[in-house]
Structure formats: structure tokens, C-alpha cells
């Protein structure tokens, strides 16, 4: 299955495991709560979906890469204890609390989450000395004598042997006690994730053209050559930062993330043409309604050019929506404070809000909330430690003004872009693809819903109906 199907399935499993009866007892008992084992290529998103599931379900989350641990840190250190049995005293070996189990109890205390997910990565790459402990963990949900607290679900992940020469096979006894979820790469699913999470549009453009390059692993006499979804996402972050700072994105930079010389070189060429098309077509001008002189060129453009420009449109509109979401978050936080009276009351209210947001940043939260909190804290920085009520009101008015301008900008730029696409392509696949990509953008859809963005929904529905009718007509004529 693909990573989205795996995420949905695991979320359903966690919900079923945490379901309770009227008396507060788990309906699926601990013995039947099989550990979930994700198996798939490195960098495919196994770790990412687990933290996302916990954040979306608002439950605790602790993640460990088990290969970083020794037998002692996983199980605990031995010590001698005196016990009496049948009137005689004996020396026995006890163990200190496992570091991993202790971290779960700390999460319960610090995060305030009585239920959560304990995620153990690289489960099948442990050393020989730790292997029996991992089998005990999977089968009995405990390290040595210490059990995972009730309400915490065990999920493990590993790589198939073709990706890692140090993996260990699990026996039938172990496999019969876990739920194995095999995950494979899916470019279409990853592109939806990419649109939704602001992956650099040069990368989404390239993967649309070359989906086989999303995950590629080849062993050669010179060593392994590979590209992974993790590599593309990390490259996206550094490309955006280089653009912000005005640094060139050279071949050496790409090859630090994409460890296949042919794919890295090919992406470099696509990135060059992506930037060229963006400049040649004056994407910003088009989105502001200045496109009459560009329609004929776009009609005659190659598939590469059309995809490149469309990917930029989607990226720009989604970025506008992300900025709007951050402004909306800050506005809601400022409004929730009410109207504190007196400098001390204002200082206390601002201090409480800042501390609350920083605590959220320290926890496992969605990327959307993290971006909004980071933005909000930066905008509140100029207030200093002793803000006045007037300064707070001024910031709120400023944010509301920016929020209104942001909403107008999104509507305007979408309408202009859609007008350009329809002038060039009518209701053909290119226009449908543009709208479909925006549907995958969470923040844009949230904006559209919360702002009653009727023109988007109407146009989207229009094209979907026409596409459906065309399909029905084609089927009738077959």
C-alpha cells in the first residue's frame, strides 16, 4: 500500500485500540493490541506519518531509533536486590527502569497525554545482543521487566533487506503477534503531500515529469546510488533557504541530498528550465491579471513548460494561503486574550500566551500549527516584555488589516490565474489539473471554506461535472 493508505489504516488501528466502554476499559485488551510494524524503503515517510497521526489525534508521541541504543539503555541496568522466599533470603537481579519506558512516563507527565504512540524505528537492524529484547518488546510490549504503560500503542518500523544489509529476519512466532504493514512509494500520493506541505515547486514539477525518480535505489560497483522522498523534502528546504538568501543552487548542493548522479544532474536541468519558464512567462504578472500577451505562447508551449508554470501557480497560491492561516492564528490568539486592563495584567496575559505557544512548539504538533506559532511569536517579538494595552490593540488592528488584504490577494490571484488557464486551455486537462492540485493544498481549502470562496467551488464543480459528463458520453459511445 502507499504511505497515505498506511497512515489511514494505522490511524484506524490506534482509534480502535484506544476505544473504551462506558466503564473506561479498553475494548481491545492489551494482549490483543498487536504492535504495528511498518516495512518500507528508507525515506518513504514512515516516521513522518507516525508523528502526524499523534498530532492529528491529539495524543502523546515518543519516537526512538533503536540502533542508537545499547542493551543497557533499552532494558535498564542490573542491580542486586535481597528477597525472602520460603523463609530464606536470596540475592536476585533487578533492573533499573528502561530509558525508553521512562521517556513514556515523562511524556505522560510533561505532555499531559495519558494515551499515545511509542514509535521504534529500525526495529530489524538491532545488534545481536539487543535482538531478544526487541522480540520481547514486539510480543509482550515490554523492555525487560518493564511494560509500556496502558494506553500507549507500540508501532515499529524497518527497512526490507534490499535496502539495508544489516537487517534481521523475524521468525513466525514474532510475525504472528504483530500487524505488518508493507509500504511502497507512490508518486501521485507524494505529490499530494508535496502540494499540501509547500515542497519547492521545482521539485513537484520534476517528480510530475519523472515519477520514477521519487524513490530510486541501485547498487553499483561504486557503491549505492539512490534518491528518496526524504532527500527530496530536505532538498526543498535548503533550496527555499538559498533562494531567500540569494545563494545559487549548484549541482554540488543537489548531489548532497540526491545520491544518484544521473537523477541529480537531470533535476538540475529541470530546475534551470523551471526558473526560466517562471521568468519568461512573468508568473507574478499573470497572477495580477497581466496575461493577454502570453496566451498564445502558452497554448503553443511544450508539456514541460505547461507543467512548470502550473506548478509555480499552485505553489504561489498555496504560499499565500499559508501566510493567511498564520495571520488568522495570530488574530485568534490576540482576540482570546480579551482586553486586559493595566500594564501588569497585559504583561501577564502576553507572558501566558507566549509560554503556551512555546510549550506547543516543544511538543508534537502539525506542521501547520508549528508554522503559525513560529510566525506569531516573531510578530510579537517587537512588543518586548512589557507591552501596553495600546500596543496590543495596535498589533491586532495591524494583523486584521493584513488578514483582509491577504484574503483579497488570494481571491484576486486565483481568479486571474484561473482566467489565464481557461483562456489558454479552456476546460481541458491542464485546467482540471490546476484545480485538482489546489484541492490537495490543505491551507488553501481551509481558506476557501472559512471565507466562503464561492468562485473557487463553483469553478471546481463546473469542471468536475463537465469532466464526468464527458466521461459518461465517451462511455455511451463506446
CATH architecture classification name of the domain at 3-70 and 107-184: 3-Layer(aba) Sandwich
Major sheet details: 5 strands, parallel
What is the number of helices? Answer: 20
Pick out the low-confidence regions: 470-478
Q: What value does the Rg take, in angstroms?
A: 27 Å
- What is the helix content? 55-70%
| Overall 3D form | globular
Strand content: 5-15%
Please identify the structural class as seen in this structure.
alpha/beta
Q: How are the strands of the largest sheet arranged?
A: 2-5-8-1-9
Distance between the termini: 33 Å
Full CATH superfamily name of the domain at 3-70 and 107-184: P-loop containing nucleotide triphosphate hydrolases
Q: How many beta-strand segments?
A: 11
CATH topology of the domain at 3-70 and 107-184: Rossmann fold
CATH class (first level) name of the domain at 3-70 and 107-184: Alpha Beta
- The pLDDT mean sits at 85
Description:
This protein has a domain at 3-70 and 107-184: Rossmann fold (3-Layer(aba) Sandwich). The chain contains 20 helices and eleven strands. It has helices at 3-17, 46-57, 71-75, 99-111, 131-140, 172-175, 187-196, 201-209, 229-245, 251-255, 261-280, 283-287, 295-299, 303-336, 343-362, 367-380, 389-425, 429-439, 442-450, 454-477, and strands spanning 35-39, 60-65, 78-85, 88-95, 116-121, 142-143, 146-147, 152-158, 178-182, 216-220, 223-227. The longest helix has 37 residues, at 389-425. The protein starts with a helix and ends with a helix.
